[in-house]
Amino acid sequence: MLKNKKHVFWQAFFLTLLFFFLGIVLGIYLEQTRADDVNIAFYKSEASLYDSLALGRLIEDASVSCQDFQEASVEFADRIFEEARELEQFDESNKLTGSVKIIHRKYDLLRTLLWMNLISAKETCESEINTIVYLYTYDTNEVSIKSEQTVWSRVLSDLKEEEGNEIILIPIAIDQDVSSLKYLIKRYGVEEFPAVVINEKHIINELISSEELREYLD
Questions:
Q1: Which of 29, 155, 175, 198 is 20 to 30 A away from residue 185, measured at CA?
Q2: Stated pTM of the model
Q3: Is the pLDDT of residue 184 over 90?
């Protein structure tokens, strides 16, 4: 009887040890996979950054029509929007939070560059595309702010889905220390956040529906 008890004890011990090491191996694998995904996101952001700079040069090229530039801008805006959404899938509680925030800052810079390019284009082209810039706070723990921003995101996503390529939606976090964005915020007199800037003419702070937002479009 005593031998059987010892046998059962050692079986339980080795099984526990086995599952313990399997857990460690699985954890390392998942962390490495997550790190690989972050690295991919980083290189995507690098490529998009250079693409944005090249897009800005198109404005100066007389052989590029306003229509071509607008189509390129819509495509670029949609692409970096989808790339940035991939970052939101990472759990902010993991060890890679710092890396994700750095990449997020780069995408905020990309979106700011896109906004600047569109502002420059409007000075030389009669643009038929409406630009909607959504300025929000990225790093906040206030429940009320998060709730309001969640609703704003849904409203703007609905509007984008309804209007398609007729609008360019540019969400930009204001707390990522992007100097050029600070200049634009000051230039257009945006003082409260979250805020929606439509065609650099209308600043909306009060939460409204997509139907009401449509009234501000050109």
A1: 155
A2: 0.72
A3: yes
